[in-house]
Structures are given as structure tokens and as C-alpha cells.
Amino acid sequence: MERAVAIEVNRLSKAYGAHQAVSDLSFHVYAGEIFGLLGPNGAGKSTTLRILITLLHPTSGTASVFGHDTVREADTVRRLIGYVPQERAIDRFLTGREHLQLLSALYHLTKEEAAKRIDELLKLVDLEAQADRPAKTYSGGMKRKLDIACGLLPDPKVLFLDEPTLGLDVQSRLRIWEYVRMLKARGLTVVMTTNYLDEADQLCDRLAIIDGGRIKALGSPTELKVALGGDIVSLTIKETDRIAGMEAGLANQPAIKTVRATRNGLDIRVESPEKALPIILETANRLGCGIEFIEYHRPRLDDVFIAHTGRRITDTAEQPVE
Amino acid sequence: MTEYWQEISALTMRWVRRLSRERFSMLFTLVQPMLFWLIFFGNLFQRAADTQVTQAPNYISFLAAGVVVMTVLNNGLAGGVDLLFDKENGFLERLMSAPIRRSSVILSRFIFVMTITSLQVLVILGVAFLFGVEPATGLLGVAVILLIGMMFGVGLTAISMAMAFSVKSHGDFFSVLGFLSLPMIFLSSALVPLAAMPGWMSFLARFNPMTWAIDAVRPLILSGWSDALPHVAMVIPVMLVFDAVCLYGGAKAFRRAMG
Predict the structure, then answer these.
(1) Which region, left, alpha or beta, applies to residue A17 given φ > 0 means left and ψ of -120 to 50 means alpha?
(2) Could you list the residue range(s) of the whole structural domain that residue A144 is in?
(3) Which of residues A194, A220, A246 is at a domain's end?
(4) pLDDT, tens digit, for every residue of B149-190?
């Protein structure tokens, strides 16, 4: 059966002057799934998201939400979506309830509809007790919950989350993940950006790895890991000046797919560890290269990321909770 | 149309709510400085200022018009700052991702700033009254003063919003603000009549819309309709042009910022 498509992105590009923030992006999001845009800071995730929520016009290409173009039918799209910004987009002087009341008016709800929905949402995100306190008294996690309630207020078909757990403590993160899964269970389509690999791995049904404004890989976390083909053997080598020699010695050996030097050793992708390990040990012996530590594991999402982008994801913008 | 009004009134209410929770800062940053100008400056220069030069019974009655327009100036130039903070913390994006008319946010800000400014102008005229300054043109004159204030304020608020949408950081915003506001005051007839200024200053002051506003407000307070009407007839087209230019610039900045 054909799955219903919620979002269609077709050859999307966005340039700021000479800087190409997003180049030739194409993907689609199925209705009812959690779709992740994974990439380091400055990769183009947020730009893509802002185009989808109608706040930016693409330089070329198109994006549509349930068949409605984000530029020509922006107002229709805005009626279908909810948005949770990356910053704590909170007015510190308003109470939680007043935030939701303001948004109710902007979505043109009647007073009765608004009151009912606001009560439901406050209960959903567990903010009932703090609803009438000014937001400046909220903790980071509480602000995030209010953010999510605000995103859900319009009763959207698609919810957009920009870095939903950036800077949150572990407990709050797990809490947010729980909400997102619950929203999916209610039939919502969720599109989120993240630069946390574990978040993408645990939460997303499918994801696009974006780097330098381009899609490097697309699929479910499992598909992406399987597609790498083979498991990974990581060596820690005592004498780091031997790493290069070892790398050359292992290249083009049978059962070894790729070899990549790391800071203190090698990451070796192998077809089967039974065949590869004797070759690795024999090569080390022959070259007189002392191995300090051997680790063997199935591909993880960070291996996928490195394989497609040639580098590790770095969380440089991570900030502590205020 | 009812939807439009629902948006504007909800957004305006937000500004009112914020203000009501910031009462302390409102009192000290908005009302006080202007009253200080009037009370301290006005009384301090009572004897230093020559009534022959100011053409007023005393300095405080001369200064009242200047303080009224300075209030409009300061409120107007600061009128965009809340939108700047909204832009910086993402609140503006949240509002803009809702199915609202793009102009609602802007209009709510105009309504709020104009209302607050009018109230402050009334407070200043009230305090001046306590010091014996009775508007020569009565309540109708006060209404015309408010009208002139609004017309000047709309343009200034538009400049402020244009800046809020264009600057990279709020540091930039406040430096431009500080750079604009004092020269605007000194290069106007707020403190000293044009005739008593050094030639180059009075020349520059003539191009300052603030001078036009003050020169119309001052006779409304000091002398009466016959003196005031020619100035009022002049200031209205000047302000219309000023507002048109500022609103055009503001709309352009807004469109650029909102992609």
C-alpha cells in the first residue's frame, strides 16, 4: 500500500548572498512518522525547517505540506502545522496559560474552544500546577514543556520541533522523547532537527543526514546502519607514529572493506570479524605495531555519520540550561 | 475582519500585560526621566533662561512643549525594542508561524505605543499644570497636541521597528538609539528657540521634524489659537511626509526580515 505523504521537498535551495545554506534538497516525510534532520550546527537543518514552516522563502525548488505549497499557500500551511522553536520562545512576563490564550486568539479559536483546549494541553504536558505563574519562574524543562504545548495548541497535523532537547538535562530529555512518541501514537506527523545521534537513533522512524546543506544519507536508523555493510573493529595503537604504516598495511587486504585513521588508532570496517581479525593481528605483528586495545561492534549511527560526512558530529553549540 | 481584530487585540493585550507586570521599570524608565526634565531642568533654568529670548512667562512653560515632544521621541524610538527581543528569542517566529496577517504584530505595537505615549503626554501636561502652566488653547488644544504627538510618534515607531528588524544584535540597536536621540533633542527647539541658537545649529534644526512639532505645540500651550494655527497647518503636512517615508522604510525592512 502507498503510504500517505505529509511533506514533499523538491530540489530545495536557499542562498544567503554567496553562502549556500541548503543545496538541492529532496525528500519526503510520510504521514504519521517521526522524521529527523540530523546534522552538525550550520548544516542547513534549521534553514530547511524554516522554509517548511513558511518563515523563509526558498531561493529555488519547492516544499509542500499535505499538498500545499509553503510559499504560494503559506496561510493554508500555517493552519496545518505547529512549531516549537529552538530558543525558549517564551515571554517571561506572561503566565503559561496566557501564552496559550494569546496563541488561541492567533488561531482564531472562540473563548470556549480555547479554554477547553488549554486545559487539555496543560494536563498533557503536566503544567497545570504552574499554569498561572509567570514564565520567568519556570525551569528549563518547564519552559520546554510550555513550548511544546504552544506548538500543539493549533491541533496541528504536522508538528515541527527545532532541536527539542538542546541543553536539557537527561531526565527532561527522556520526558520530551516520551511526549514525542505519544504524539506519534495519536497520529501526528513529527519533523524534528537534532544534532544528537542518540536522539535520532532512538526517536526517529526515518532520518536525513545533512551536512554542508546537502543530504548525505536518508533512511531509517537501522537501514542506514545495515547499509554501511559489515561491522567495525576499532584499534587503539600505542605508538601513534605507527598508525599510518598500519593503515597502509591493511588497505586492500581481503575481508577488510575500509580503513580510517583516528586520533589514537584505526577504525576498520570488516566483512566478517572471523576472517578479518587474524589478518589484522598478523599485519600488526609483521609491522611490529603494538596494539593496546581492540574493540568490535556493530555499526552505530555515529559510524553512519562518519561514513557519509567524513567527520564526527560535533555539538559545539551545546549550551547549559539557564 | 473579525479574525484580524481578534489577532490585533490579543497581541495588544500582551503588551499591556507585560507593562502591568513591569510597573516598576515602567515608572522609572518611561515616566520619570521626562518629568525630571520638566521639573528639574524647568526650574533650574528659571533664572538662567532669558524670558526675552524664550518669549514665555517662565522657562518651565517654555520647556513644556519640548518635554511633550521629547516624550513622543523617546517612546517612539524605543517602540521597536520589544519586537527586537521577540526576534532574538524566537517569539516572533512563533507568532509568524501562526495563520495571522503579517501586519497584526506591527499594528498592535503602534496601538500600544501610541496609547502609552498619549497617557504620558497627559501626565506631563498635568504636572506642568501644577507648576502653573495652563494650556492657552484649552482641552481642544490638548487634543491637537495629542494628534501632533501621534503623527510624530507613528513615524518614529516605524523607524524603531525598521531598526529592530534590521540590526544584528540589540547592542547595535541601543547604540544607534543613543546616537539618534540626544542630537535630535539638542538640534531642535526643545530647549532653546531657534532664533537664539548658533547659526549652524538653527540651520540643522530646521530639518528636524521634531522642531516642527514643538513649534506647533508650544503656541498651543503658551499663546493661543491665532498664533498656533499657522504652525499647526504647517506641521500636519510635514508629519504626513515624515510618516510616509518612515512607514515605507519600515515596511521594506519588515519584508526583508520576514523573507
Answers:
(1) left
(2) 5-220
(3) A220
(4) 999 999 999 999 999 999 888 888 888 888 888 899 999 988
